[in-house]
Amino acid sequence: MNAKKTNRIATGVIYFLVGVVILLLVGILGNILISGIPHLSWHFLSSASSSFEAGGGIRDQLFNSLYLLLLTLIISLPIALGAAIYLAEYAPDNWFTQLIRTTIEILSSLPSIVVGLFGYLLFVVQFGFGFSILAGALALTFFNLPTLTSNIEEAIKGVPQTQREAGWALGLSNWKTIHGIVLPAALPGIITGVILSAGRVFGEAAALIYTTGQSGSTVDYSNWNMFSPTSFLNIMRPAETLAVHIWKVNTEGIIPDVNVVSAATSALLVIVVIIFNFGARALGNWIYKRLTAAKIK
Amino acid sequence: MENWQNQKSYIKTFAEDECAISTNNLSVFYGGTVQKLFDVSLGFKKNTITALIGASGSGKSTFLRSLNRMNDRVARVDGSIMFHNLDVNQSKINVYELRKAIGMVFQKPNPFPKSIRENITYALKANGQQNKKKLDQIVEESLRAAALWDEVKDKLDQSALALSGGQQQRLCIARAIALKPEILLLDEPASALDPVSTAKLEDTLKQLRKKYTMVMVTHNMQQASRISEYTAFFHLGHALEYDTTTNIFTNPQGEITEKYIQGSFG
Question: Fewer CB atoms inside 10 A, N or C side of chain B?
Fold first, then answer.
């Protein structure tokens, strides 16, 4: 066979495989969106879910998902940032660093149901938090930390070494170089990493079933006192999220419109994650432009 | 590679008070055992440009980067570096202060992804200079000294990344001299530039000679002969010959120097 022919066959096979991937994606996304979007209405978004009648909404689940995500990021971002800076800038290349990296890899491949059960035993039972947003946020932190750390580490490592040398050569200390030059340059990448991992956290169900619980509590959106049991801001209340809601109405729900509710909720979940993804790109670009007045190449 | 051991080294020496910086038996080891530089003793005369030439891997960049202790984290450097009658190759020396006095410009232009103004003011601010007027003044002075002012004075708050390679490199020079160093180390500063930008850069360096002592690594021998007063020839980690640029290029003492100048290896 001559080179030209081989090349044409190889190209053809590659195009075919890409086509399969795209077809699968479009198929799944299209199915979810087409079957879900018609049922998305203001009423659906703004009313509480119902446990046995048709016509319930997902107001609380939507809020819980976002609130839980916020809390998770507040806990995991500082830790991941610190760990990533250490790994990218300070860690010597030795067995200890290798051990840390291996641990992170193992942690990131931990099945989320295992993380959930671990969170249940440690936070819910041992620490006595009960089914609560806090227990869920801590479990999600375990789930999120490895990915977030490696995302941020990659972003920091992507800053060329010449930038660090420029800082050192100007008499800047290592830390000053890192936080004044390297981190701003890595910021778009860091933000992309954070938001992409947020998408994963947002759609997580298994790790939450045993930590935030499956029952919605009575929530009062006018009660701003975090410590009041009915406040929407209370972090010690149980809270069902969108993904858990989908799982629940399908496994033990008795509402008659289960198909409608789960289709609409799935569509909403996917839409929010898509917004996260595009938002990550746009925000990263915008910040980079603000910082540098130049476009990412 | 040529056998250097047959060649004696011919090293010009200066009186100590003539030198801005000098080294005594400087040796550099990578990974504890691999020696890259062997007992280099060179003095650099004040307000001159000295070119360091030699084939790739001859140790000239390693030597240059030792002078402002940029090799600290990657290699062990033995010997002494005398700067103002002080051996600055000691662990108790504050390298951050040292690097403000000994600026460095790199092979590839590396402006920060910030505005032109911030590129210059960032290190100044980090050192505690907050006075806006004073900062503006230093920005203008440095850019004028680097012959960049006229080209960028209307866009100081635009990104430095939008400048051409040659402009970026002159910005890096401006950034270094904003700290008012005594010495500028230049590591092949023109190797990534086109001929026009290179000519401009060389003009800038010639102007700067009045105020700074410059040590420049270069692969370009025409460049060395155009702008430097003194030239040191490095070979396999040894400084083999050091003399006026004219002597090195027209009347080299050593056989290997002569071969390198003629371009028979490198």
Answer: N
Query: Nearest-CA residue of chain B relative to A184?
Result: B113
Please name the residue that has the structure tokens 């006095």.
B101
Instruction: Please give the domain boundaries of chain A with CATH numbers for all domains.
Output: 40-292 (1.10.3720.10)
Q: Is the ipTM of this complex over 0.90?
A: no
- B110: contact with A, CB 8 A cutoff: yes
- Judged by a CB distance cut-off of 8 A, whether residue B108 touches chain A is yes
A171, A180, A294 member nearest B96 (Cβ): A171
Q: CATH says B4-109+182-262 is which class?
A: alpha beta
Q: Model-level pTM greater than 0.90?
A: no
Instruction: Quote the Cα angle for B129-B132-B137, to 5°.
Output: 90
- pLDDT tens digits, residue range A178-228? 988 999 889 888 988 898 889 888 989 899 999 988 876 677 788 888 888
pLDDT at B1 over 60: no
Domain range summary for chain B, segments of one domain joined by +: 4-109+182-262
Put simply, the answer to whether A171 touches B97 (Cβ < 8 Å) is yes
Burial profile A216-239: b = 16 or more Cβ within 10 angstroms, e = fewer:
bbebeeeeeeeeeeebbebbbbbb
Q: Give the C-alpha separation, B38 to B132, whole Å.
A: 47
Which site among B114, B117, B155 would you substitute to test the A interface, given the most A Cβ atoms closer than 10 Å to its Cβ?
A: B114
State which residue of chain A sits closest to B171, comparing Cα positions.
A166
Of the two residues A15 and B8, the one the predictor is more confident about is A15
- Per-residue pLDDT tens digits for A277-290: 888 888 888 887 77
Q: B187 to chain A, minimum CA–CA distance in Å?
A: 12
User: Does A162 contact B114 at a Cβ distance shorter than 8 Å?
Assistant: no
Residue A293 clears pLDDT 70, i.e. is over it = no
How, if at all, do strands B238-244 and B10-11 pair? parallel
